[in-house]
């Protein structure tokens, strides 16, 4: 009995006790019987039928395993006996009072309470009621309760993903725990006042338990589907974006003080130049301020003539306007004001110029139009801006601001708001630049807030989990499944209870060419055709987006035209926070004014310029020198980057180039530990870090290195690189910081081919591949170790050693990088890693807070599982073998050298073999090396076979054959690699007398009855299809069906070895199964031979693979490393 079933079983017991108590005490009311009878017409037969149905809930086909479950079963048996006694009494009444209604009979039953038999039943019910409440209190509250453990696990997973159902489950459990405790402490079962929210009666608890069971099962399924959508770096881009500083961007949601100042100044100017005729003219203020066409015309007059930067052009506005927007806080004409305008510091600021005044007016209109869109608008709102203008910072600011949610909730009205965001990032991993990542992220965020949609969006997956056909974790959804699911979501015209709003940043960072960008823009526009979906997007002013989205300024914000005040505030704050501010406090406002005028709306340019000027302030530059420096700074970002880097002292050029060169190759989604940059000078020693001892750094050493590195980075990169706090710092300060470019435009600039060649020319002996390997080895040697790092699962140490690749495979950092780039891992490096791991096994833990003792094992083992969910690599609590890991990850040179030193290594140890590890790694070269060295495909390896527990071993060849057949059946991306490995096996001379058994999906689905689904839901394995429905396909036919690139070579090798007809081979195979294999019918007619034309893409499911001596079915697992 699983813990969640136990909850429902307990509810049935309590429901029976509550029902029986009502019957005995005469308080049972028939509001709506299960038979359809009502309060007015129910007879005693109705009560008898209801009691019998309540008694049925006491019967369980599942045997209790834990002490708690056994006690529940005992209590259910007692209640069942009691029900028979009670039924006997009621049936006697039914005979004697056959025409009486229950309303009159219940008084008679209550009057019989003093009789011995009735009194005995009442006493037993009272005891059983106390027992079930005690049992429930234990199940729901005690730490050792399997029910609590299971509920905690399900709830924790949901809370981690912030799902709506998890929130509901948390509240329900709290109420339920309180209700059980209250009933335990009192004998008063009366229902509380109607206005009380807590549940305190037995009936309420029964209802809550039923909801708990249903909700926990639903949440468990929701969690599993959401995990298949989630990817590790789903929030990485948003997390790297700096928060808006110094009050910047507040103006888009609330009135900025500068707008009021600008309005006042404007009115002062207007009052001076106004004529008597103007004064006599009567103007309706609401008309004046609400004329959107006039506002738009004024806005258009401010558009810069220079519409180009970095190859970006912004199409002219065609003055299409949306609904008129009331401009708030218009100044009253003719009113005099006498104020002194100051900036964020204490220095008086000169009155705003005409451009600032007009920009303040446009900002007010933009705010009103944006808030109006949030509150009641539809379609797409487009935030356009030049590179470095702060689009991503603004989008993050909006996503996190409470007013945005408040206004959107107003738009949602009586429906519930679903808010989701995605930030494209072309410097990140593939999922952060692709439609797949967009779909995954929006589906994940939407479905966790709107879980009722999950069965509709993923019906097959939901039903499969409902029928419990697999207890294993399914792999991440494939792109075709993701796209189909997202189309289902978007194609819904309306949502009955929800409204959806998406914020999508960085459309220009979406992978693909101009045509793909056109398609993306058109898709976004189509998504908003639903009245329940609207989207806010941001991008550079590329033609694809400017032409597709509405050009009305009620639906577009040109950010770089509206940030003069923000840049002024930001630049002023940078000056005022500087340690040398006193030197420029009397003149910095003039510098800020000139910076704002030259920035052209680009924050990035302003930040770099202020930083450059502050460097001069630190060197005691005069005001005129600072002004001259400012005037000489290029306005183009690329030219500015070149000027900044060109100003680096020649003596520092080498170290600067090394830092920047390393950073350009560092994966942005997993940036390098800042400590690695502190080892650059150590790299001059060719023996570093090979000769360095494996010894964790102290807190003092780490802090000193961080403190030394910070000014070095600032000086040697001119602010282009910065130390960024890492969220792992709370666990260990060793991982306290990473080094990153402060903006992606810097990375893009430095990764240009010509600049990469310059780095290589100035650093001829600086091999970037080798540098990465050495720095990662140093990190392995100097990290502080803890017991938890070696007990399995993912941890900080494995963050050094592993990084995710695709959906289920793991790889050593930079090993994977080198493999992708086609480079070889040096033997000395691989050997050094092996020595570090051996040191980990022998040395005490080095983390200062660790008190545990080293067991000498590293539980990082991996197993391959082949089940109904497909192929998966998962953790196992087994000691890790680095050599097998190297074979798995294609390091054939290292493997070859190790087996040349110890030839017996190729034979395996019974649990693992290098040949199997290399085969699962799909590296044909390593497989060839091992076969030539004497590895035998017929070597036996240990397996765990859930479908056949008697099976203890199988051959390497059979496992690879199953692996190959699975990749062929599912048409996985690595099928071509598997085909190359198969060619090596065939060249070696493996037994090709092998075939695959499978079944078509439609046949299988039609034969699984509801009864079989009920059986599987009780925890048994997926039911077997009838044997006559299985079909067979030979290895040669499977190759012909899937047509890999080396199909000709494979077919030639297979045909050369073919010596007898396929059906003869089938009969031979079936008759020669190993003794532990379950009996199989040797009559070959039981297996239908499918024609190739009948086997279409993904139409069949793999059942098993067979050879002359072995039959291997789905459901096994085997060690890989």
3D architecture notes:
52% of the residues lie in helices and 9% in strands. It is built from 47 helices and 22 strands. Strands 4-5-6-3-7 form a five-stranded parallel beta sheet, sandwiched between helices. Strands 19-18-17-20-21 form a five-stranded mixed beta sheet.
Features:
single chain; 1121 residues; alpha/beta; five-stranded parallel beta sheet; five-stranded mixed beta sheet; 47 helices; 22 strands; 9% strand
Relative strand content: 5-15%
Mean pLDDT over the full residue set:
76
The spatial strand order of the largest sheet comes to: 4-5-6-3-7
Could you tell me the number of beta strands?
A: 22
- Biggest β-sheet, characterized? 5 strands, parallel
Q: Based on CA inertia axes, which overall geometry fits?
A: globular
Secondary-structure map:
Elements: H1 3-25, H2 44-56, H3 67-96, H4 102-111, H5 116-141, H6 146-160, H7 164-185, H8 202-229, H9 236-240, H10 257-273, H11 276-280, H12 285-290, H13 292-300, E1 308-309, E2 312-313, H14 354-376, E3 380-384, H15 391-400, H16 402-412, E4 416-423, H17 435-449, H18 454-457, H19 459-466, H20 479-491, E5 498-505, H21 514-527, E6 533-539, H22 543-548, E7 556-558, H23 564-577, H24 588-599, H25 603-618, H26 623-632, H27 637-646, H28 653-665, H29 674-677, H30 699-717, E8 721-725, E9 737-741, H31 744-750, H32 753-762, H33 768-782, H34 796-801, E10 803-805, E11 809-811, H35 815-821, H36 827-842, E12 862-867, E13 870-875, H37 882-888, H38 892-901, H39 914-920, H40 924-932, E14 940-942, E15 944-945, E16 953-955, H41 956-970, H42 975-988, E17 995-1000, H43 1001-1007, H44 1010-1017, E18 1031-1034, H45 1035-1042, H46 1047-1057, H47 1062-1071, E19 1088-1089, E20 1100-1106, E21 1111-1113, E22 1116-1119
Parallel strand pairs: 3-6, 3-7, 4-5, 5-6, 18-19
Antiparallel strand pairs: 1-2, 8-9, 10-11, 12-13, 12-22, 14-16, 15-22, 17-18, 17-20, 20-21
Helix pairs in contact: 1-2, 1-3, 1-5, 1-6, 1-8, 2-3, 3-5, 5-7, 6-7, 6-8, 7-8, 10-14, 14-16, 17-20, 23-24, 23-25, 24-25, 25-26, 33-36, 37-39, 38-40, 39-40, 39-41, 40-42, 41-42, 42-46, 45-46
